[in-house]
Amino acid sequence: MKKLLVCTGGGDCPGLNAVIRGIFKAAKKTKEWEIYGSIEAFNGVMAEPTHIVKLTKSKVGGIHVKGGTILKTTNKGNPLQFPVQDEDGNIVFEDRTDTLAKKIKSLGFDAVINIGGDGSQKISKALFDLGVPIIGVPKTIDNDLSATDTTFGFQTAVQIATDSFDKLVTTAESHHRVMIMEVMGRDAGWIALHTAIAGGAEICLIPEIPYDIEKVKEKIDSRYEKGRGFVNIVIAEGAKAKDGKVFGSEREMVSEHLRLGGVAFQLSAELKAAGCKPEIRETVLGHIQRGGTPVGYDRVLATMFGVKAFELVQNEKFGEMVSFKNNNYCSVSLEEAVKDYNFVDKEGFLVQGAKAMGMSFGD
Ligand code: F6P
């Protein structure tokens, strides 16, 4: 029997379990493979003793409806920048990819499928360059990978945000308030833009279009002057004012990213400072957007990504990442996969169409 190792890395995302199940079911059907999972991304491989589990029918059955990942995940412990303490107790980063590649080989795995976002696929690429037979599966609620038209988790996040937005509209209307709802997305405004259009927001603020607070206030004032008496704003966590900077906590030393969150409160303070009169309330949706069961669309996408990933393994097309392009399940090289970030095009139809309907982006 050949041995296949699967792992999930980076932030969790609805649909991860559906990918694992898709891989498992397709691989089992061949009767040629045993499937294993590394717990908490590659940390399970690096651990001594290793933390690797054999996947079985009973472990995988029915998990496609379940949020999170049965293999656990982490955005700490990137082998390319592995955090270790030096003699003075300071955190320093070491490249441990070579050790990881050797360990994967010594454990006798014939193939690896790494499910994760851009950070995880950079790890896949580094491992492939060291001779590991690896396939990537893209995952992100942020929709920020340019090598695939969409990823599982994104539709679920948008649905959760839209449902929340709808609830905020009725309370905004009842109280004549300005409601600011902050959504995730890191440096891309996709979740915010889709939610704003789906919910019918008056204002949508995204990282790709730095906002002018006076323009945001003008839009609010005009709504009240027209007697509409309430305003709903969607703001992406990575949005910033012109000449302003992204609102986030200090970089956590063991994590790759600056931790974002809280820009809704900054916007609220800026509006008050600019003389905005109506009452303002802020909602930060946070990890709610990543939790729970994936919507049907994401289950299909995730399941087929799993099946496609195994097909690539069977055909020994290593060094590729599964992709969904032009309504087609295909693959791209890992090199291509990690090249470009997928930003919202501010001249594109989604933004221009929303503007044509009167939505303000604060520019
Ligand atoms: O990349 C997915 C994401 O949910 C981002 O939208 C968000 O900024 C980040 O992860 C949050 O990460 P953590 O779970 O580490 O707080």
From TrEMBL:
Q: Could you tell me the superkingdom of the organism this chain comes from? A: Bacteria
The EC number on file is 2.7.1.11
The enzyme class is transferase
Q: Where does ATP bind?
A: 11, 76-77, 117-120
- UniProt entry keywords in alphabetical sequence: ATP-binding, Cytoplasm, Glycolysis, Kinase, Magnesium, Metal-binding, Nucleotide-binding, Transferase
Identify the metabolic or biological route this protein is part of: Carbohydrate degradation; glycolysis; D-glyceraldehyde 3-phosphate and glycerone phosphate from D-glucose: step 3/4
Q: Which InterPro entries does the protein's record reference? A: ATP_PFK, ATP_PFK_prok-type, Phosphofructokinase_CS, Phosphofructokinase_dom, Phosphofructokinase_III, PKF_sf
Molecular function as annotated in GO: 6-phosphofructokinase activity
- Record's keyword annotation contains Ligase: no
The Phosphofructokinase domain, residue ranges: 4-313
In chain numbering, the residues marked as site (Important for substrate specificity) are: 119
Residue positions binding Mg(2+): 118
Places the protein is found: Cytoplasm
| Cofactor(s) the protein requires to work | Mg(2+)
Question: Which chemical reaction does it catalyze?
Answer: beta-D-fructose 6-phosphate + ATP = beta-D-fructose 1,6-bisphosphate + ADP + H(+)
The record's family statement is: Belongs to the phosphofructokinase type A (PFKA) family. Mixed-substrate PFK group III subfamily.
Described by its record, this protein's role is as follows:
Catalyzes the phosphorylation of D-fructose 6-phosphate to fructose 1,6-bisphosphate by ATP, the first committing step of glycolysis.
UniProt-listed PANTHER family: ATP-DEPENDENT 6-PHOSPHOFRUCTOKINASE 3, PHOSPHOFRUCTOKINASE
Protein name stated in the entry: ATP-dependent 6-phosphofructokinase
Instruction: State the organism named in the record.
Output: Belliella alkalica
Q: What is the lineage of its organism?
A: Bacteria, Pseudomonadati, Bacteroidota, Cytophagia, Cytophagales
